[in-house]
Structures are given as structure tokens and as C-alpha cells.
Fold Helix-turn-helix domain-containing protein.
Amino acid sequence: MELDRRHELAEFLRSRRARLSPEEAGLPRGARRRTPGLRREEVAMLAGTSREWYTWLEQGRDINVSVQVLESLARVLRLGADEREHLFLLALRQPPPVETFTQPIISPTVHQFLDHLEKTPACVVDARMNVVMQNAAHCAVFGDYGARPEKERNLIWRLFTSPFPRQINVAWEKVAQVFIARFRAGYARFINDPWWTEQIAELSRISPEFRELWARHDVFNLSDGQKTLHHGEAGDLVFDFLWLQTVDASDLQLLIHIPHSNTDTASILERLLSGELLPPADTEGGHS
């Protein structure tokens, strides 16, 4: 398996080198090029490594590779985001580091998918756990996140600073533990991003519960679970929730709430969608 990985890395580097012309790399074409693309020594020179070391890498030899060198190779070979990640996974068995957060783009397909989940509350959440898109069913249950200030669109902020999540989440403590462990898992990827430092510091100052749970250093990405929300007029809404990862944008996830079978959740949701019932929380506050 190790040999296969090194072989795949070697083949990948050779293919990326072959597709890049000298002119694209800022080099003169020169004469007597028997093969298309850059020469090994040209890639090595542009990446700041020796020809011998880079040759060994393309030969699939068992040599150490640093993050800095991989970043240089990704730059020289003009790798896209997916190709850069592929390079790191092959060379180091880990994704590339992420220094700062950039707002991912939501594809029309994801938007359409949410709309087709007519009676299933669903939203799109970014790496910071901000709700960046939601369908009508999610608005009916959780309120309109688009109408809130930017800070109020964050699931962790809402969970620990608003009274409404505590009032309507039947097992608020359990939900808080799950969400904060997921939040910490994302934090490791963006540890140099000042937004995370500021958010954690402010939440620690405002919320003793956040401060206590954050100090536990729990880390896990629970992919599914169950959540019960209490509606003062209609009773309890019981959802099986599911986190799904989008393929084209690794920093976006879908959070889907499926009405639990053998409960009145589906019928209550229909009344919420029709406007017969108000959301469980007030229309300004909502909840996580």
C-alpha cells in the first residue's frame, strides 16, 4: 500500500509537470525539448529544491517531504484547490493547512436540493458554524437567520448566548456538548484565523457553560443524532438530525432535520409551514 501511494504521487507530479509549458512558468522555451511541459530541473529550481531530490520524488522513492516544499510545488505546478489537497494526501496523508477562512460558494445544486426538502428543515452551515442558507421548513421551525445580524447567525453563539435554546431544547446540555465538540474540531483547521480567537474569547467571557465545555477539549464530528424541541402550544417536535458534507466545498455542510416517525412532528411542521402556528421560539430570536 505504501508503494502504491508513492507511485501514485510520482505519476501525479509527472502529469502536472507535463501539462505546464515553460512560458506559463515564466521560462524561455529554448530548443530541443523532446517531451511537453517542464523539465524536472526546472520544477526543482522554481520550487527551491535540488534536481536530485525532486527526481527521487518523481521516482517514488521513500523520502521525507515538508509542508513548505509541497506548498512550493503546488504553486509552481499551478495546482487547483482539489489538486493541492490531493498532493498533500498522497505525500503526507493529511490535507493541506488552512491559514484563513474564506467564505465558500454555495452551488445552485445545493440551493435546489434544500428547496426540494419541502417538509424537512435543512440549512447550509459553514466551517465557523454560521447558517448561510436555509429552506422554508427550517425558517418555519428555527426562524429566519437571514433577517438576523451576522453574529446571531452563528449556531454556537445562539446556543450559548440566547435564552431560547435552553427553553425549547429538551436536552440542551446534550446538544451543547455535541455542537461545541464539532466547533472545536473545525477550530484546529483555522487556528491562526483571528476570528476564532475573538469568538472563543467573547463566548468564554459571556457564557460560563461555554467556558466549562470548551475547557474539556472534547473533539468529535457526530454525523447524526436526535433533537427534541418543545412547542408551547403544539407539543414536542422530535427530529433525527443528519450532517452531510458537500463534495465541491469542503467548508460547507448540510444540517438536515428529519421528522421522527411515530410522532406528531410531521403534522406540527405542516401547521408551522402554513402559518397556523408560530415558530417554537419568537420570530426575532429563534434558536440553534
Observations:
- Residues 2-18 form the longest helix (17 residues).
- Confidence is low (pLDDT under 50) at residues 282-288.
- The two ends are 44 Å apart (CA to CA).
- The chain has two domains: 2-92, 108-274.
